[in-house]
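PT: before anyone asks, these are the final sequences, not the draft ones from last week. 350 residues across everything. Please model them as a single complex and drop the result in this thread when it's through.
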Amino acid sequence: MNHASAGGDPGKSATDAGLAFRRHDHSHCCGGLIARADALAAERGLKLTPVRRRALEILLEEHRAVGAYEVLERLAGEGFGNKPPVAYRALDFLVENGMAHRIARLNAFMACMHPGDDHTPMVMICRACRSVAEAPAEPVAAAVEGSAAAAGFAVEGTVVEALGLCSACLARGEG
Amino acid sequence: MNHASAGGDPGKSATDAGLAFRRHDHSHCCGGLIARADALAAERGLKLTPVRRRALEILLEEHRAVGAYEVLERLAGEGFGNKPPVAYRALDFLVENGMAHRIARLNAFMACMHPGDDHTPMVMICRACRSVAEAPAEPVAAAVEGSAAAAGFAVEGTVVEALGLCSACLARGEG
DNA sequence: TGGTTCATGTTATAGTATCACATTTCTCTT
DNA sequence: AAGAGAAATGTGATACTATAACATGAACCA
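LR: through. Structure below.
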């Protein structure tokens, strides 16, 4: 198997975990996810406007964290505005609607591989190749919830990021 | 700095979880932690120099995330340099040596309440009162490790932050 | 005592993010 | 179809966060 299906079945996150770290049919996985974003927008009455859509495509084209200013540069090169709010607004829209994630540790963004699934993402950041992938986070979310509950804290959102080495870089004998 | 608790007794973190959110003898908890930092530095041959010590005190005086520039302002007011590297170097030292934590989501810093324990912190950030507290993160670290292992990812460090409402703000009927 | 290392200080600059306001586009209602 | 209101986009200005590069000074120890 070298590509991802766009479906949202629960078994999928386990299958796709670390997808970015493996070889796969990239144009197919991008196309599928754009289609899924379109469907999602239609479903929910959201407007996936040209800037927003293009911003998502830019994130999808890389399987890595991309800075807002890098997205901005590419948008500007295609005729959109070239001021920071252009990129930040598009990215914020994508994040708020579950089509992308913000990676706090890197002050950067990545496309979500399971848009629509209401998941708390856990992201893995490879320090050698800089690629970023999502992993299933339900067990992590449960643990966070448990620890927080013990302190009487009501969790509304989480940031869970693992830093280390991806399988490919480990295999190549990095660090 | 890695997870895998090094030897702080497990009962302690549970007891202290959410301390910042409760009433407590603040000057006592600060003094104790400065003493602990001194001991730690002596033990490990680290130099808790005046800037570093003062930076730690500043973090301890607030039970909240403090930005580097706010620390800098206070340091400068006390005769230390007033350029960003002064604050960043002191804060980096504290973070590297487990005396403070960086909060990625806020681009800010907080004093560690368990210096010396080699823990991966989980921090809880209250959106209403902006206070920040640590919670035991061993179960979370284990879950992160598990999800990462399934993707062949070798975890070297983690960022785990929960956003929401602390017990005090919940009791006061916030949002 | 001279050299090495580490800590501090400074200048300059890079990178990230938001505010405030003008203009356009969309949408709904009448 | 016209107009009011809301949403989206564009722009200028600015605030906030962080690091690079290099100079000076203090501590350590052979």
